Amino acid sequence: MSNVVKLNSVRHARLQDRARGVTLCQSGFHKWKPLAGQRFDVRQGRLVTTERCERCGVERTILT
Ligand SMILES: [Zn+2]
Q: Within 10 Å of residue 36's Cβ, how many Cβ atoms?
């Protein structure tokens, strides 16, 4: 039985951690991670870097 309690608390901690991350995302603090493979936008002559938030999956593109 103690095992079950332990598992539940671990799961609860993980949920709390995720909730904290989503709160950060909603505040605009995303955890950006560049996606593999960069595109080059010929029309604008700039390097287009695509990044995705590890937590909520939102994507953004940056022109450099
Ligand atoms: Zn995010």
A: 6
Give the distance (Å) from ligand 1 centre to CA of residue 20. Answer: 11
State how far the Cα of 64 lies from the Cα of 51, in Å rounded to an integer.
13
- How many A from CA of 52 to the centre of ligand 1? 8
Distance of CA 18 from the midpoint of ligand 1 (Å): 11
Q: pLDDT tens string for the chain (64 positions)?
A: 567 667 778 788 777 777 777 889 999 999 999 887 666 666 678 778 889 999 999 999 888 7
pTM over 0.70: no
